[in-house]
Amino acid sequence: MNAAERFNLVREVQLAGSCSHPIRLSGEMVNIATGEVGISSLRIACKDRRHVICPSCSYTYKADAWILVSSGLVGGKGIPTSVINHPRLFVTLTAPSFGPVHTIRSAGGCVTFQSQQLDDRFSGVLCAHGRALACPSFHRKGDARLGHPLCFECFAYEDAVLWNAHASLLWNNTMQMIRRSLAEAGGMTKDNLKKVAQVHYLKVAEMQRRGLVHLHVIFRVDGPDSIENDPPPWLSSKLLSMAIRDSIARASALGKEGQTFRWGTVLDIQDLGGTLDDSGKVPSYVAKYATKTTDGTRDLARRFHSRRQIVALVDDPHARTLALTSWDLEQRAALEHLHLRNHAHNFGFTGQLITKSRSYSTTFGVLRKARAEYMSVRNEGDPVEGTFRYEGRGYDDPRGTDLAEVFFTMKRELREESAEARRSGSLQELEASS
Ligand SMILES: [Zn+2]
Ligand SMILES: [Zn+2]
Ligand SMILES: [Zn+2]
User: Fold this and answer.
1) Residue 88, domain extent
2) Neighbours of 252 (CB within 10 A)
3) What percent of the chain stands above pLDDT 90?
4) What pLDDT was estimated at residue 1?
5) How far, in Å, from the CA of 126 to the mean position of ligand 3?
6) From ligand 3's centre to the CA of 170, what distance in Å?
7) Could you tell me the distance, in angstroms and rounded to a whole number, from the CA of residue 132 to the centre of ligand 3?
8) pLDDT per 10-residue tile (average), the chain, 434 residues
9) Cα of 135 from ligand 2 centre, angstroms
10) CA angle 254, 256, 260 (to 5 degrees)
11) Are 143 and 200 in contact (CB under 8 A)?
12) Which of 156, 159, 270, 271 is a Cys-bridge partner for 90, taking CB atoms 3.0 to 4.6 Å apart?
């Protein structure tokens, strides 16, 4: 590679924003100032949210997710800071158990006889397949057994995948129930509730190690019409918390084969109160989940095209069985509408990773547009116009991907260093002035 080629590759990677797998476009471009027509090809960032696919785009996505969550909690990006005084809760909803799995309990141990409710299927210390129904280990964080069933044959794979597939429906039913319950508490109909308050949320789905979806949800109640308005005093965070707890216990979703899907019994409700402190960790928490794949690897980052591909790609036996179960369930006529083959890499979960009610805060679209406008102001040269067509992915020179990662890492380190310098600088100023 000569110096000019090397220079071109560096330039290409920079223009694509250090994206690892940029989208290649080509087309005819007109320079608006000179009228000159030229054939151009360019690479634009892939905008993939997953860290294992593209560290650079995922970093941007994570930052946007942080802003999205944070502005809804404490104001900013068009949201007034007065939302801090509105009822705000951070709630974690879980799936029920489909069989005991290796875990780390708060006391450090794994599955004990006391910790699981044994039913008639189990007569003693062993399951019907001769496997132990308790685990004496104290697992460490990276232990490969974590999330794996104590007995693969006892674990209800079909029920687990179908639960994931109905989680979004269950969520919608729960949300309706919460609104109805609040309306009842205020002595009014659900339609009239809108005239005094609005219930907003942002939720992020997290895939647990056992292969079941967990939902982390931020709830906020505002007054009617505008976010600026306060909700009525009777609609307190305590009442909201009660309505949520009660709705989660009662809500259900019906499957086309007659099954009923419900939430698990583990539920966490955190009142974020009227202070900034308690809401500080929530945006980072949500942003972290937003850039993960199903199991944190590349294998489950994209849709599968065949059953054989699942067998070949997924090494983990639990993850493989979940993906295969999802793939095979599509054959059942009553389940066709769930398109479970398309969601096998998500173990049947059909929903979006991050969803929110419209007025919770700003959108990813608005944040991306603002960034694009900021970048276009910084890019010198004559304005050009034209149409592009999709040409493929990646760099012509495969070293572009490695270079992108090096650039991205450097940029991130520099950004973190200057943030650190700013922090210690303002600390010194504070000390000097006191
Ligand atoms: Zn990218
Ligand atoms: Zn264990
Ligand atoms: Zn068993």
Assistant:
1) 55-98+158-303+356-362
2) 15
3) 40
4) 73
5) 8
6) 29
7) 8
8) 83 86 79 74 81 84 85 84 89 94 88 68 74 89 91 95 97 96 92 91 91 94 89 93 96 95 91 68 81 74 92 94 96 94 94 83 78 63 68 85 88 84 73 66
9) 5
10) 30
11) no
12) 270
**What pLDDT is stored for residue 277 in this prediction?**
61
Q: Tell me the residues surrounding ligand 2 (ion) with CB < 5 Å.
A: 102, 110, 135, 137
Report CA(267)–ligand 3 centroid distance (Å): 27
**27 & 138 share domain:** no
Q: Which ligand is nearest to the CA of 155?
A: 3
Burial of 196 (0-12, 13-18, 19+ CB in 10 A): middle
Handedness of CA 30, 34, 36, 39 (dihedral sign): negative
Is there a single domain that holds both residue 76 and residue 125? no
Distance (Å) from CA 57 to ligand 1 centroid: 4
176 and 297 in a common domain: yes
Ion ligand 3, residue ranges at CB < 5 A: 127, 129, 151, 153-154
- Assess whether 370 and 413 both reside in one domain: yes
- The pTM (predicted TM-score) of the whole model is 0.83
Ligand nearest to the CA of 56: 1
First-to-last alpha carbon distance for the chain, in angstroms, is 58
Give the Å distance between the CA of 215 and the centre of ligand 2. Answer: 24
Number of structural domains, the chain?
3
Number of H helices, E strands in the chain: 10, 11
What does the pLDDT read at residue 301?
A: 79
- What ligand has the least distance to the C-alpha of 404? 1
Write the pLDDT tens digit of every residue in 309-360.
999 999 999 999 999 999 999 999 999 999 999 999 999 998 888 888 888 8
Residue 344: DSSP 8-state: G
Tokens of 54: 């593209």
Q: How far is the CA of 231 from the centre of ligand 2 (A)?
A: 47
Distance 139 CA to ligand 2 centre (A): 6
Please give the structure tokens belonging to residue 205: 């789905």
pLDDT attached to residue 375: 64
Distance 152 CA to ligand 3 centre (A): 7
Show which of 123, 155, 187 is a domain's final residue. 155
State in Å: Cα 340 to ligand 1 middle.
27
Same domain, 371 and 276: no
CA of 403 to the centre of ligand 1 (A): 13
| Residue list, CB under 5 A from ion ligand 1 | 19, 45-46, 54, 57
Non-local (6+) Cβ contacts of 325 within 8 A are 157, 158, 160, 161, 348
